[in-house]
Design a protein that fits this description.
With about 375 residues, the protein is an all-alpha fold. It has a domain of about 230 residues. About 75% of the residues lie in helices and about 5% in strands. The strands form two sheets. The protein has a two-stranded antiparallel ribbon. The protein has a two-stranded antiparallel ribbon with strand order 3-4. Helix 6 packs across helix 10 and helix 10 packs antiparallel against helix 12. The longest helix has about 70 residues. It is extended, with a radius of gyration of 28 Å. The chain starts with a helix and ends with a helix. The relative contact order is 0.09. One of its GO terms (cellular component) is plasma membrane.
């Protein structure tokens, strides 16, 4: 009965946030920094439930208001393809963050179990160089990526105010046809809204991605340690053991027990990877789809403007301009007809067809 009670308590702990059970493993949580990052995003629960709920609701409500402003911006653009594409790319990032947050809330028990299971697997080898290196790389990756993105955002947000001029502009999403000098309160509110959404959505979008990458780095370190243990099973005092005759029965049993332990650890790792894949697969698909849509819109603008260059050259006043001018203009028109391509590593063209093929392959993999 006591063992059954302990088992039930252990199972319950795996469904609790890390903050409720952090004392059970010596206050050492493998993904502690990433959990703190998700708390800033309003995803991972705080100790105070009311404050956590208020924080989460405010972050998501600001995102909804930002999307409403974006829809109004698209409506007022009235056929401005560049402006609509610019607004859509920003809206897709915010929508991606909201979808990922919703997926996290629907699977939060799975995330709690992922943290607890990873802590249990690394607890015996916490100080091994492989795991120390994994923690260091995960921390550096998260800090450097966050610092880079926040630096760009903080440089961009005050730009409309520093630029001055008669026309007041918003940081990212513009609403055409509105004289903001007549509505200073609304301008200040929209400016603050866009700033707050950009600053609060970074931990949502980046935090979950860094969480997954950090977990995979630690799993890779665990697999490396497991490989070292398996390769060292046959080594005794620096010599290769002859399991057929020279090694005693007791030593054979010890080696077999060690091998069984390695097999059990490998099963734990593979099970953890399956759980990690179940938690992250949909989020990765959302992120991949969002990035591809944004890139495709950028490629569409690039191709459209490139083709329009030939028409612009033909529309110029070339009649009577001289043979030299006309020959040079023909060269420009001929060059404009050549598609403008971006390549990946000078090996593969980055165009709409390539993204469609990548989308099909990614969706097929996701389905399998």
């Amino acid at each position: 009965r006591r063992e059954a009670t302990a088992a039930m308590a252990g199972a319950l702990d795996k469904t609790k946030p890390w903050s409720e059970v952090d004392g059970q493993h010596g206050n050492r949580c493998t993904l502690a920094g990433h959990i703190l990052y998700l708390r800033v995003a309003g995803l991972w629960p705080h100790a105070q439930g009311a404050r956590y709920l208020l924080h989460t609701v405010m972050v998501q409500l600001c995102a909804v208001a930002y999307i409403a402003v974006g829809v109004a911006s698209i409506y007022t653009a009235r056929g401005d393809v560049d402006g609509i594409s610019h607004t859509l790319m920003h809206l897709l990032e915010v929508v991606s963050g909201m979808v990922k947050a919703g997926l996290f809330f629907s699977k939060r028990q799975s995330f709690y179990r992922l943290v607890q299971d990873l802590d249990l697997m690394v607890s015996e080898d916490w100080d091994r160089p492989e795991l120390v290196s994994a923690r260091r790389w995960a921390r550096r990756m998260t800090v450097s990526l966050t610092a880079y993105i926040y630096t760009l955002i903080l440089l961009w947000l005050p730009a409309p105010l520093l630029a001055g001029g008669d026309q007041k502009l918003l940081p990212v999403v513009q609403i055409e046809g509105v004289d903001w000098s007549l509505w200073p309160g609304a301008y200040a509110a929209l400016y603050a809204l866009q700033c707050s959404v950009l600053l609060t959505q970074v931990p949502v979008v980046i935090g979950l991605d860094c969480f997954f990458v950090a977990a995979m780095l630690h799993v890779a370190a665990l697999l490396q340690l497991l490989g070292q243990r398996i390769s060292g099973l046959q080594v005794i005092s620096g010599s290769v053991a002859d399991l057929a005759g020279d090694v005693s029965l007791k030593r054979r049993q010890v080696l077999y027990a060690e091998l069984c332990t390695c097999i059990v650890n490998h099963q734990k790792i593979t099970k953890y990877l399956r759980n990690l894949e179940a938690a992250m697969s949909t989020m990765v698909l959302v992120q991949l789809s969002t990035n591809m849509i944004c890139l495709c819109m950028g490629l569409y603008q690039q191709i459209q403007q490139g083709e329009a260059l030939s028409e612009a050259a033909y529309s110029s006043h070339w009649v009577g301009a001289g043979a030299g001018f006309q020959r040079a203009l023909c060269i420009v028109m001929a060059r404009a007809h050549k598609p403008l391509l971006i390549t990946a590593g000078h090996l593969y063209p980055v165009n709409t067809a390539a993204f469609v093929a990548l989308m099909k392959a990614s969706y097929s993999y996701y389905t399998l």
